[in-house]
């Protein structure tokens, strides 16, 4: 009978988002923030946290193409396959930590970053030099940087139990969910 059918549920394709922390510390606040983002992501987003930063060899343009090292290829493939990238990184001496810059360098002469939606989140309220430098690097690499809805949850100097406590507070969980949703909206709008 026409007009009497129940509406069919609309399925929204799942977005795969790759989260990269610029800190290698076991008790990293940036890594904790990204793990919490993954846990609090909305149902239409799957956030996976990249864990290979410390295994990447130092970038060397002579090692590209067929000579690309396995760990670099893993990173390049992960960024290529992701619908979007979220980065959280500390500031070292007013700059971007070398490990993260090294990872980004492996992506420069590829298509992986070109037009790839990306956003930055912040665990330290004072990392202003690194934020600006990282945004400049990522824009230069042609990431499509979503800069409107930056998420900042102040975790600087907090120890792991305190970090866990802050990240499990309902208002912060909601803020994280909204931040990932806003980024998902940006990805879907492109
Ligand atoms: C070598 C080194 C240099 C740092 N330089 C700065 C700096 O220039 N500005 C700043 O705000 N914090 C600086 N910090 C503090 C870190 O950015 C801060 O502790 C950050 O939250 C650590 O992130 P993580 O917990 O994810 O490792 C520095 C820390 C280290 C270890």
Largest sheet report: 6 strands, parallel
CATH uppermost class? Alpha Beta
Low-confidence stretches: none
What's the domain count?
1
Mean pLDDT: 95
Report the total helices: 6
Overall spatial form: globular
Distance N to C terminus: 38 Å
Helix content: 25-40%
Radius of gyration: 18 Å
Task: Spell out the CATH superfamily.
Answer: Flavodoxin domain
Strand content: 5-15%
What CATH calls the topology is Rossmann fold
Tell me the number of strands: 6
What would CATH call the architecture? 3-Layer(aba) Sandwich
**Structural class of the helices, strands and pairings?**
alpha/beta
The secondary-structure element order is EHEHEHEHEEHH
Which cofactor or ligand species appear?
flavin mononucleotide
Please provide a written account of the structure.
This protein is 38% helix and 14% strand. With 190 residues, the chain is an alpha/beta fold. It has a single domain (15-61, 68-189), classed as Rossmann fold, CATH 3.40.50.360. Strands 1, 2, 3, 4, 5 and 6 form a six-stranded parallel sheet that branches. Strand 1 (15-21), helix 1 and strand 2 form a beta-alpha-beta unit. Helix 1 (29-39) runs parallel beside helix 5 (160-168). The model has no long low-confidence stretch (mean pLDDT 95). It binds flavin mononucleotide. The site of flavin mononucleotide has 15 residues, from helix 1. Flavin mononucleotide binds next to helix 1.
């Amino acid at each position: 009978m026409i007009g009497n059918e129940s509406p069919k549920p609309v399925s929204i394709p799942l977005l795969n988002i790759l989260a990269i922390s610029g800190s290698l510390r076991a008790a990293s606040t940036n890594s904790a923030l990204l793990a919490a983002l993954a846990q609090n992501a909305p149902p239409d987003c799957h956030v996976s946290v990249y864990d290979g930063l410390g295994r990447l060899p130092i970038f060397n343009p002579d090692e590209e193409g067929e000579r690309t090292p396995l760990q670099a290829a893993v990173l390049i493939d992960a960024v290529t396959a992701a619908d979007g990238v979220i980065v959280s990184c500390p500031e070292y001496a007013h700059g971007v930590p070398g490990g993260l810059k090294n990872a980004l360098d492996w992506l420069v002469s590829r298509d992986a970053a070109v037009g790839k939606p990306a956003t930055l989140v912040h665990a330290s309220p004072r990392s202003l030099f690194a934020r600006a430098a990282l945004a400049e690097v990522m824009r230069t690499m042609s990431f499509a940087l979503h800069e409107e809805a930056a998420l900042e949850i102040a975790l600087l100097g907090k120890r792991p139990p305190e970090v866990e406590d802050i990240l499990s507070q309902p208002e912060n969980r909601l803020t994280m969910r909204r931040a990932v949703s806003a980024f998902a909206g940006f990805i879907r709008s492109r």
